[in-house]
């Protein structure tokens, strides 16, 4: 099926559905000059399709979402398969290939009647670069069931990169968050103290010798002055 010269409901301007439609369809040469993009989304898109105001509905959401569920159960609607889903995921690394199994919507009526290949977008969690690493670790532990250490658009936080490489540290596994934060600060202070203290202890004897030499030179000058006074 080609989308050229079709009326396509792509959601309101600025919405994620609209942006994804322009981005993906545009890659196939379907844009506002070769097709008609209409700002219908959600229930309005379903109604527009029922009233033949649009030919195609571009939507995103899980199968149990009200809009998607109503479209899948509508006998007049056919779910389009993406036979080139693998190509789309190569061109757009943030996309994933999905398969909607036969009959997963309704086993009685066998909806869909066959496996349908789909494409889906990945969800990105963005954090400020000044967010405490412990908070980043907590977020990652919450999302550990589906990790994704690579992103082509946004830089990955250093704490997230460390988590993906080696997982949570022993301190984070066995200590509560409040104690883990204090332990991390204590370790940082100890390391800083050692880094400052070692050079100090190394140069302390040299400094001591310099001070003693200065004192000796001072008293030596006093003695020379006293000896000169005896001569006079």
Features:
232 residues; mainly alpha; D-Maltodextrin-Binding Protein, domain 2; two-stranded antiparallel sheet; 49% helix
Strand order of the largest sheet: 2-1-3
CATH superfamily of the domain at 7-121: Periplasmic binding protein-like II
Averaged pLDDT, please?
A: 82
Q: What is the beta-strand fraction?
A: 5-15%
Described by the principal axes of the CA atoms, the overall outline is: elongated
Low-confidence stretches: none
Number of strands: 5
- State the distance separating the first and last CA atoms: 119 Å
* Count of discrete alpha- or pi-helical segments spanning 4 or more residues: 8
What is the CATH fold-level name of the domain at 7-121?
D-Maltodextrin-Binding Protein, domain 2
Radius of gyration: 35 Å
Write the element-wise H/E pattern from the N-terminal end onward: EHEHEHHEEHHHH
- CATH architecture label of the domain at 7-121: 3-Layer(aba) Sandwich
Q: How is the main sheet built?
A: 3 strands, parallel
